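Example with several molecule types.
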Amino acid sequence: MEVTNKYIVIKHHIEDAPNDSHFEVKNEAFGLSINSGSDDVIVKNLYISIDPYLINRMKSYSASHNAISFSTPLTPGQAIDAIAIGKVVASGNVKFVKDDLVMGVFTWGFSGLTAYGGFFEICKPQKGEKVFVSAASGSVGNIVGQYAKLLGCYVVGCAGSQKKVGLLKEKLGFDDAFNYKEETDLNSTLKRYFPDGIDIYFDNVGGEMLEAAIINMKAFGRVAVCGIISEYTDAEKRASPNMLNIVYKRITIRGFLAADFMNIFADFSAKTSDYVRNGQLQVIEDKSLGVESIPSAFVGLFNGDNVGKKVVVLAGE
Amino acid sequence: MEVTNKYIVIKHHIEDAPNDSHFEVKNEAFGLSINSGSDDVIVKNLYISIDPYLINRMKSYSASHNAISFSTPLTPGQAIDAIAIGKVVASGNVKFVKDDLVMGVFTWGFSGLTAYGGFFEICKPQKGEKVFVSAASGSVGNIVGQYAKLLGCYVVGCAGSQKKVGLLKEKLGFDDAFNYKEETDLNSTLKRYFPDGIDIYFDNVGGEMLEAAIINMKAFGRVAVCGIISEYTDAEKRASPNMLNIVYKRITIRGFLAADFMNIFADFSAKTSDYVRNGQLQVIEDKSLGVESIPSAFVGLFNGDNVGKKVVVLAGE
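Resulting structure tokens for the full complex:
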């Protein structure tokens, strides 16, 4: 049996902010039979994860530069791969049977593990410490804030709308939150929310927010750099953190990727599942429908459209 | 008995590059008798340590800003304190007798401990790793490079003259060294010396060199920020490290102060004394004579005049 498979490509490398016209939906004919003797599995994708890091794979820089080479560069015209959850429709493999639910292998962008590993392994938090999270209503930030509250930290988040600020304070239990778009001087803003300084800054945005956070860090403060979405789409935009502060306050700034935490995946998964089951951790999903909605779902990440984890639902289970 | 004591003051806060006219030598009458019942000690200073960090105590910023408040700000007209070695000339204290050699308490600028703690505790080096040291002929850098060689690392240093480069390669055993003033593109320069990338960058200068090093770091590379002398005297000068590299290569940048390593002072002192006695570690001192030479010795630090540790000799033992 043959079906038509839809997929998304970039028309050319993307150097600044992405928009819908950069993408194209393509079709290919696809056979649903398994060659005898192969251990192939055919999977129908149900849910696809939409993550900002993909923008870095779409840059010509990525294709030419070894700095991020382990993150496979995307070629214009080539199907874009990403994390997905799917259902097995046909299997020649003894490990899988029809109707099994499976998850794609690109787990290094998996928001929960990014939040768990980044917060616990990189930030090494202590109960009572003061934690600041940027892009706090985003897929990673909202979970970092909730883990921090579960540990007994004081947590302030920032986001880009009053609606998101409300979600953080009312639904997710953040101690406080603010809309960075309403602030004119981020340094003063952070001083207001952290009069005694910040122990941990979980950075999802880079740029001016990173600079302001460095000024407000306490001695021995830790900055985990998870992403720098404000810099992804503007090559000219660069944080210039005050290095004098970094020396005198003995600040650690550390980049990381979820891929580095596969060794604690079981621990992450067990604890987080328990939290979710017990109602101690809220899962915030922002769903769009259909493969055609992938480009606009992706573009929306850079406009702050999503609240929580952005997922495209491709098919019902 | 009364003597005349000379000391150095700043005439006003110093905001950019220091020069001799910023300083003044003052005199005060000083009694050499100990009040009975006190446990005072009177010390004759023999050697005084000249360190770049003092510039940060001379800024008006320092007086007004809590970021570096633990580093006591200097007030114009006030005697400048620093690390010194002296001899006890009179003692009312049971712990000291006349002619004891003593060292001042401001040990946090002590070059050897800075090098030892910064390299071993912050960089966590492994035998065979590739180490880059900036300001490598300076008081801290030259010792970091020597420790790194003793551990079995590959070490490249940069300095500001051919004479210094020669010292690093011929006397101190660096694997290679270059004069940064002769290089036009530091990124390419570092690629030439580290074709496979840098594991550890021991940063004494900040600015463009830090940016170039970040680009050339290997995955899981560590940057210890000991000082940023290129930024101390120019408030506009700021490193803008590529944060995308920091995330994707999981780089750690960490500031530190020698004061944090007092718990390993005994270990540092024992090992380093052994190395020096056995001729495995060279001590490079750059001496000036007399209290009046302090301002120009200090100003010279920012012009790259010193080779090794800058010391002013105040009196013979």
